[in-house]
Amino acid sequence: MDAQALYNALKPLQEKKGYYFNRTMDRTMDILNGLLKNKDRYGYLACPCRLASGEREEDKDIICPCEYREPDVKEFGTCYCHLYVSEDKKNDDDISKIKVPERRPRERMPF
Amino acid sequence: MEDRKIIVYSLSTCGHCRDTIKFIREKGVDFSFIDIDLLEKQERMKVLDEIKKINPECSFPTTVAGDRTVVGFNEELLEEALNI
Which residue from A44, A48, B1, B10 lies 20 to 30 Å from B78 (Cα-Cα)? Predict the structure, then answer.
């Protein structure tokens, strides 16, 4: 599967849940390519913006869409990686200006 | 310019890390970066220990410029830390 196919597969499913892809396509495709690279390396779609351990159980909170997407999109309008945005921001071009702090608790990082 | 080491601790798959590296490169500043996810396990643990000392959150990118640390891609803070 390539990034475009992943995009096409996820878009309708995620939009139904109220999550929209960042409309800056260069960024969105970069992130999707990072996810696919992690799928190749680890066997699952580990967040490309976080260090995965390679053990599914340890990484389960950061498998995309991660456990932190919901509170991050709610609070900031975008997830940590800037892949998903809220409905309010689905037409915004300046998502990159939003700083989303790491919400993953330190104790859940297996390193 | 004062002589101080600038290092970006990054992930090869992370957009914010790529933005940070591109930003510093475009400023013409000497720096190096380490993609942690590409290191062998032993080396990775060693570098992670260094990162934990300066950024306990252990998030990426973490940029170190002398005694300054910038967590995440933040142009203003990077300019300040790098004196550019």
Answer: A48
Q: Which two tokens stand for residue A94?
A: 């300046």
Kindly identify which residue of chain A lies nearest to residue B52, measuring between CA atoms. Answer: A111
Q: Is residue B63 part of a domain?
A: yes
ipTM of the complex: 0.94
Name the residue range of residue B78's domain: 6-82
The total number of structural domains that make up chain B? 1
pTM assigned to the model: 0.94
Interface probe with A: pick from B9, B10, B13, B41, most Cβ of A within 10 Å: B13
Nearest-neighbour CA in chain A from B61: distance (Å): 9
Which stretches within B1-84 are classed as H helix? 15-26, 41-54, 75-82
